[in-house]
Specification:
By secondary structure, this protein is mainly alpha-helical. Helix content is 70%, strand content 2%. It has helices at residues 26-35, 41-46, 50-56, 60-72, 76-86, 95-106, 110-123, 127-140, 144-156, 160-173, 177-189, 193-203, 210-222, 226-240, 243-255, 259-268, 273-286, 290-303, 308-320, 324-331, 342-355, 362-378, and strands at residues 14-16, 21-23. This is Tetratricopeptide repeat protein.
Length: 382
């Protein structure tokens, strides 16, 4: 059995995308594997966790033992059970229940297995692979929700005609609110705001869904109708208490110059330190108090475990200030498994453009260009 303690100062855990968890020890990895078998079969099959165990946790002997499991066993089930035996926490748990749940998962119909693979690739930003698996699932059994997901991927690739066809096909089979909402998103992306409002007006009296009000807010904000946007966001917030929507409301407050309202929201509506710091950072940004903004964003990034959106925001600030080295330094704190996500690659490309031919950047720029070319070629629809 092996015991692992996360190294002091360890910044990044191993991310299990399907359950939105980061783990920092072998025990944590096995705990979540035992309780969420469906999230781990692909991870075990692809061996994506082995480098983390060896490099970040320094568990070389454990990696050797796990490699023996791969050499000696033919099935994912045997390997996963073997790993449970290597962990002091999961060794004594009910392995019969684990095996039962795992077998039920592995014996699901093929189209459901393909859909899960697609969902996993989508969550990691590997959209081309996600699209291929979604299409494979559809070739076996048509599902309106999967066709809806296909439309979303096409929108990411800006293949809007294909997205439109998939949305229409999905709506012919199912009038689910999520499909209508993606139709609104389609119109927003094409800046067809009036068309988007028509769809929202069509469904607002049919579905009681907070995203409807959120998209009202998005469109009104795009049209610079800030009072209407704020009212829509507030309605969505009433239904969800979502911190993301609170960020939207503060953005509108700042656009309207209502600093007192922002301070009230920070004091009365924030219930977590991370959100409070982030909203304060946005306030300092509006007031052009740049040193305070940087200090707060540094803290936000640490508190969020280097969440991609926050890292990209601060990197973008440094890029706009022509502080290229700092921009690169910040963006390099993003988790390894997120480095090739589309928005990260795009940000790197913009940094490269801003850097130009500045002396001293050549090696870093060449590295980033090679990453960019490799991922764009890999993650583009043929």
């Amino acid at each position: 059995m092996y015991k692992s303690i996360s190294p002091i100062g360890m910044e990044h855990g191993f991310v299990i995308h399907t359950i939105s968890k980061s783990v920092y020890s072998f025990e944590g990895f096995c705990y979540w594997m035992y309780h969420h078998v469906e999230a781990f079969t692909d991870i075990i099959e692809e061996r994506s966790f082995m480098r983390w165990l060896k490099k970040d946790l320094g568990l070389t002997d454990l990696v050797i033992e796990i490699e023996k499991l791969y050499d000696n066993y033919d099935t994912i089930m045997e390997i996963m059970v073997g790993m449970l035996h290597l962990c002091p926490y999961t060794k004594e748990l009910d392995h019969h229940d684990f095996i039962k749940r795992l077998m039920e998962h592995l014996n699901r119909p093929k189209h459901l297995q393909y859909k899960q693979k697609a969902d996993q690739f989508y969550s990691m930003g590997h959209y081309k692979k996600a699209l291929n698996w979604y299409k494979s699932a559809q070739s076996i059994h048509f599902d309106a929700s999967v066709e809806n997901n296909i439309a979303v991927v096409y929108m990411i690739f800006e293949e809007f005609e294909m997205a439109k066809k998939s949305l229409e096909k999905a709506l012919q089979s199912d009038k689910h609110v999520s499909i209508y909402l993606n139709k609104v998103r389609y119109h927003i992306l094409l800046e067809q705001y009036e068309e988007g409002l028509k769809v929202l007006d069509e469904v607002v009296n049919i579905f009681d869904h907070p995203k409807i009000w959120y998209y009202y807010g998005q469109i009104y904000e795009k049209l610079n109708q800030y009072i209407e946007a704020l009212s829509a966001y507030e309605r969505s917030y009433e239904l969800t208490q979502s911190s993301d929507i609170l960020v939207d409301m503060v953005r509108i407050d700042l656009e309207l110059g209502d600093i007192d309202r922002v301070n009230w929201r920070i004091k009365e509506q924030c219930n977590e330190t991370l959100l409070e710091r982030y909203l304060k950072a946005q306030l300092e940004k509006k007031l052009e108090n740049w040193s305070e903004y940087i200090m707060l964003m540094d803290e936000v990034i640490r508190l969020s475990d280097y969440k991609r959106a926050y890292v990209l925001e601060l990197s973008n600030y440094y890029k706009n200030c022509r502080q290229i080295i700092k921009a690169i330094g910040v963006i390099n704190t993003i988790h390894d498994e997120e480095r090739f996500c589309e928005d990260v690659l795009y940000a790197q490309g913009i940094i490269i453009k801003e850097a130009g031919n500045y002396e001293g950047f050549e090696n870093k720029i060449d590295e980033m260009i090679n990453q960019w070319k490799k991922e764009v070629r890999f993650n583009t629809i043929d």
